[in-house]
Amino acid sequence: ALRHAWDERVGQGLAPRYFDRQLGCDVIKVMPGEYEVSADDVTLVTLLGSCVAACIRDPVAGVGGMNHFMLPDNEFGGTANARYGAYAMEVLINDLLKRGGQRRRLEAKVFGGGNVMRGATGVTVGERNAAFVLEYLDREGIAVAASDLGGKDARKVAYVVRTGRALVRHLPIAATAADIAAEQVYGQSLRRAPVSGEVEMFG
Description:
By secondary structure, the protein is α/β, with parallel strands linked by helices. The chain is about 25% helix and about 30% strand. The chain has helices at about 5-10, 85-100, 125-140, 175-190; strands spanning about 15-20, 25-30, 35-40, 45-50, 50-60, 65-70, 105-110, 145-150, 155-160, 165-170, 200. The strands form 2 sheets. The protein has a 6-stranded mixed sheet with strand order 1-2-4-9-10-11, with no helix packed on it. Strands 3-6-5-7-8 form a 5-stranded mixed sheet, with helices on one face. It is globular, with a radius of gyration of 15 Å.
């Protein structure tokens, strides 16, 4: 079973940090249903299939963060948590404001929402997630500086908190089959009962 202890570690500076040789910096990995906010010289990294990650920062306050949500909202009610976009966006923004950010200065970069489920028809989960995050940011008056949404690939995203630099690597589903399968299983369990900008690619 997947363990998503977002309430124990997310946004509290408790997420494990490690040095990534490829990126050449300290990294915190943000898992599905989690978010992280920091003012440190650290890079936030996540792997996305149909999920979406919003990376938001205040460049003046020097604080930024990333979330990783799986569905726009909890259709069946229940406890709010960061697996759902409506709550994931709220807690990320509120944490940024608590740490000195100002709403009028916030800028966002958004990623993910891929159609990675074989045989999916109609409006996919990825499309719903992508539409949700853009609508949410527009409603809140937060500028989208860059986006890489949709398509059929998985993505690895690295977000440098202090500079706002975003690096994206598109990955074939076969290369991330185990991770994406786990994401899909978890997303299905939760459902029971064009903006442009500069995005760097990295290899």
